[in-house]
Amino acid sequence: MSEFDRSLSTTPRLHVRDALCAGALITLDQPQSHYLGSVMRRQAGDMVRLFNGRDGEWAARVASVAKKAVTLAAEHQSGRQEQVPDLWLCAAPLKKGRIDWLVEKACELGVARLVLVTTQRTVVDKPNLERLGAHLVEAAEQSGRTAVPELPEPVTIDRLLRDWPAGRALIFADETGGEAMASALARCPAPAAILIGPEGGFTPPERDAIRAHSAAVPISLGPRILRADTAALAAVAVWQAINGQG
Predict the structure, then answer these.
(1) Which residues contact 89 (CB under 8 A, 6 or more apart)?
(2) Do domains 3-79 and 87-243 have the same CATH topology?
(3) CATH number of the domain at 87-243, please?
(4) What is the pLDDT tens value at each position of the chain, 246 positions in all?
(5) Cα–Cα distance between 100 and 218 in angstroms, integer?
(6) 3-79 in CATH: which number?
(7) Domain boundaries of the chain, sorted by first residue
């Protein structure tokens, strides 16, 4: 067993933008350098795990530690790039705290893309994508993912329905009722998406428009009233249990 394998559980894991290959030198940005050098107190020769969303996970060694920059040298691939099931989560932005938790858990559960959808009852019309993107990266680092979910610009529910891609099931968690979740999700393998409404629910016209869409598969999440973030993660977890990979 290698030095790297023995210390795997305590080895810091970081997301970088650089290409990863044997011999590649990666200079971390200031926040990551501070974390690795000042918080984790890593020194030259120590091991780090790196991923960039494309090249799998790589074992790297600290090459140098300066006050504002830490440089790493990639040595060998320690994990393959994950095969991400093609599942989107389309959810209305929630209040800070709730949306942060939703973003973190959606990443941990393996979604490929997180689409924020504004509706008539959405309480947050300008979500902080930079902050949410940072939460996605941190969740990927902590959960062992080698891919970070895509986070595009928010869209309105009207535009989402208008531009919906052909061949992708639109699994609609409808609080007014629908097909039992397990049986419906079994009929909706990838590519698929789960649509969750805002804290106040969709308006009747919005609900009618969603149900009228040719890709829509209305489902019921059970007899209890769930928070929007709970509903989203319950549906994602069941879909992954039925259709996910690995």
Answers:
(1) 106, 111, 113, 114, 115, 193, 194, 196, 232, 236
(2) no
(3) 3.40.1280.10
(4) 455 454 556 799 999 999 999 999 999 999 999 999 889 999 999 999 999 999 999 999 999 998 789 999 999 999 999 999 999 999 999 988 899 999 999 999 999 999 999 999 998 878 999 999 999 999 999 999 999 999 999 999 999 999 999 999 999 999 888 999 999 999 999 999 999 999 889 999 999 999 999 999 999 988 888 899 999 999 999 999 999 864
(5) 26
(6) 2.40.240.20
(7) 3-79, 87-243
